[in-house]
Amino acid sequence: MVANARTACKTKARAGNLAKKNARTRAPTPPPLQAHLGFWLRFVSNPVSMRFQQLLEAKDVSVSEWVAMRTLWSRNETTHADLIAAMGMTKGATSKVVSRLEQKGLAKRQRAGGQTREQVLVLTAAGRSLLPLLAALADANDEHFFGHLRANERRALMRTLQALVQHHQMKDLPTA
Fold first, then answer.
1. Which domain holds residue 124?
2. What is the longest distance spanned by two Cα atoms in the chain?
């Protein structure tokens, strides 16, 4: 019995020492979600993106189609490879977007000027006439979420977000 009592005492002492050691090495309590900038960016970004997606869907256009159309708008002719690079999407995903735009009559593939093999992508007349309406939806969405901010606050927010994009060398356009 004495041996068992000694063993029990040693076991309790070891457990006590282990508890003290664990108390000293216990990880600090993590900060709340609201302490993270990423939390606030997603908190704002999700509803902004969702509302814009719904506005576009009411016009039978997806966000990725909007981005492709806006990219094509800024260029007279765009090769498939250039559109892939501009959008930061895979070849297959970009091809699906272009095919959907073609099916809707908003974009078309045509032969490059004087070339027999190379194709370029262009907006159709219907795509060119729809794009300003879609851009107005983007403006209205911005106004809905950011219109209460003073002009200098909006510019500061824009500069901050652009600085993050530049610092982290983010290239892919948001398409989803």
1. 33-167
2. 102
